[in-house]
Write a structure and sequence with these properties.
mainly beta; 4-stranded mixed beta sheet; 9 strands
């Protein structure tokens, strides 16, 4: 007697899996690294030049996009340059939510990626 067997193949999901935001026109990161770094910043952005058939940098050297946080300014300057400023702080308790990310061809995909964590700026604990 032959017994039919039903197999359901479910793709495995790994938190450690690399995710690259890439729609074949814009790419965040070098293509082999996660698009979000441990500061919650997007890695260096690139655009695809179809005439040269290659990816071109949108920032200098290999720099990610920067973030700066400041507290305690005196109100005389809209950029708070007289307070305590921290640039690109590493996030503690960082979580990265990939629920809005859709793989096209792994590790590439598109969608929403949300990075959340804590930083300390001038003695103030902030969630960003």
């Amino acid at each position: 007697m032959i017994v039919p067997v039903l197999m359901l193949l479910i793709p495995s999901f790994s938190e450690a899996q690399t995710r690259v935001i890439n729609n074949n026109k814009l790419r965040v990161g070098n293509g082999s690294e996660n698009s979000i770094n441990n500061s919650g910043n997007m890695q260096q952005p690139f655009y695809y030049n179809s005439i040269a058939a290659q990816w071109r940098k949108l920032t200098y050297s290999n720099y990610a996009l920067d973030n700066a946080y400041a507290v305690g300014g005196d109100g005389t300057n809209e950029w708070n340059t007289y307070g305590t400023i921290v640039q690109n702080p590493a996030l503690t308790n960082q979580t990265i939510d990939y629920l809005g990310f859709t793989f096209t061809t792994a590790p590439n995909g598109y969608g929403t990626v949300v990075s959340k964590g804590n930083i300390n700026v001038g003695g103030s604990l902030l969630e960003v």
